[in-house]
Amino acid sequence: MSDGGRWETRTAEAGDAGERVDRWLSAWTELSRARIKTLVEGGSVRADGDIIRKVTGKVREGVEYAVHVPPPVDDTPLPEDIPLSVLFEDEYLIVIDKPSGMTVHPAQGSRSGTLVNALLHHCADSLSGIGGVMRPGIVHRIDKDTSGVMVVAKTDAAHRGLAAQFADHSMERAYVCLTRGRPNPRTGTIESRLARSTADRKKQAVVRGTLGDMDADIHGRHAITHYETIRGFGQRKNASVGSPVVAELECRLETGRTHQIRVHMAHINCPLLGDPLYGNHRQFLSDNSEVEATVRDAVAAFKRQALHARTLGFVHPVTEEEMAFEAEPPADYKALVAALETLPR
User: Fold this and answer.
1) How many helices (H) and strands (E) does the chain have?
2) Which of 143, 145, 275, 332 is flagged as catalytic?
3) 232: part of which helix (H) or strand (E)?
4) What is the pLDDT of residue 121?
5) 297 catalytic residue (yes or no)
């Protein structure tokens, strides 16, 4: 290969035998296992000269393994002329209504078309540098497929002031979402620790034993979600009256952990509609009622988790003015609600 990259080689010893190939290669190349997987799929990893096709294979003693590492690519985000829905802007910060489908900052698999690319064009050089070149101005994030209100810092002073409010949980953050079934009780608080799932690295999970008891385990990060049922849609088959098929909730975050609302709602058996990670859709496939068919058709047309960051309130980090912003759910969310409103009660 003549792309300017380099080959790194190592011969497996007796103590290496039997280890998973990707784990072992990652350890001595200092590349992530995801990067190793990409190189394997591209035919850039060999064992005694033969191309390796599976990362799940086992290391064999005495075999020389070679990894072709491509030259580094300058992935500094570039300005892109992407329209933004601006709710407020001054010389210190900007508040936007992020559309669903837009990633907040560049990452592997989404190097362009992100909110950062749009902000670099809109704000030019006026973004806080605290987050580094990949995350200029980014104080907090919402998931790619979640819509709603975000604040971005344009100066370092604003960044520090906003970050302090996120850290002490004084920000007002309210989301609306649509869930399978209705929580019991209708209004409540979910408190737990959250950590990366041991079964799926893409997911977060409630640490066993910590729901409502923060001293039960020291692992994970403290997470608190306050929820309130707004309304219900339809009536669950063979359930007591007042048991809706779908509920709309308002969730207020006291903390802001990765996937917090999605994980907490799934944990109490009320997963968000359309959630590809935590939706647990299989449990609803056995109900062949007309109501369930309507719900499935509506969700199939939705294409994302039914979650919208509706409200954001904070103290301006420079002027000290009390600020509050609200964004109505986007058209796809409203269309899903309209479909659910046709369900018989």
Assistant:
1) 7, 14
2) 143
3) strand 221-233
4) 92
5) no
